[in-house]
Amino acid sequence: MNTSNDTEMYNYDYNSTCDQDPSAQSSDKTMILLALYYMLFLLGLIGNTTVLWVLLRYIKLKTMTDMCLLNLALSDLILAASLPLWAYNSQNLALCKLMTGVYQLGFYSGTLFVTLMSVDRYVAIVHAISAMRVRSLCCGIIASVTIWAVSATAAVPQVIFASLEIDPDDNSSECQPLYPEETQQFWKKLRNFTENTVGLFVCLPIMIFSYVKILFVLSRSRNSKKNRAIKLILAIVCVFVVCWVPYNVTVFLQTLQLFEFLGTCEVSRSMSSAMGFAEIIAVSHCCLNPIIYAFVGEKFRKSLADVLAWCLCRYQNRPTFSRVDMTDKETSNTPVRSDY
After folding, report:
1. Which runs of consecutive H residues, i.e. helices, occur in 222-318?
2. Where would you say this protein principally sits, based on its record (predicted)?
3. pTM
């Protein structure tokens, strides 16, 4: 995102012959967007740092769910860390490539880890008998390494083509992907296709399938926490859909522009404005994940309350609060019994 010219993290430039809408470059509008990005950065930083701290220091990593939470928090923290970088109009090519890579890595890994959490819960509930074998810490490590490798691979092309675009009018520069002219359309289509494949055509159907099956099993269960579990599942799906579907739909429509199905200047301006708002909604998911996936879990809440009580006693110079070691039974991370 550039504070002087743009409200998008990337200038997709689908119809370069169209003049920009002057209203889209309003300084007041840009300042509001900057404030939103900094607010999301602070919320994401606080929430995800807290999750990482509690997981590493007090809960430890024992199950695949713990590993998923750790990597999801790390991914969201990476995405949140990229937000203030886009507000800084850097003249440095290395920093331009760095913030492009950080954003892309956080974008892909965050979506994939949310999907992995869905699959983990699906296995734990729908296939409870074989869940212990599949949901081991070793499997969690393998799945996490694979996701990070896939995310890094998907981010590499954008990092390679990230460059400083010079504005001849005021000699300012803007960090944007600059593709070779002869293959420009190919790389733009590939970028959009990759984003849509991950977020819209693969991860979203997997999430919906997993949670529909979970709801079916829970509806036949006599578990006392069934209603709470169902409400949380609906919240997870709704939040993901609200945050990411508008962004992916906008990317899909902009891909149609590349194929000249939607080619008018008015449509191009509308898409550009829509992308700016869709990106804000999408990245806000990194602030909501700690609330949905960690703070609502019984295991995490007990550990967090334990930590806060210990800190409060230290601050008041009272005898330190002795943290009671909770047994695996008391802190079970099985989704039906405790996480919900």
Report:
1. 226-258, 265-283, 285-289, 298-315
2. membrane
3. 0.82
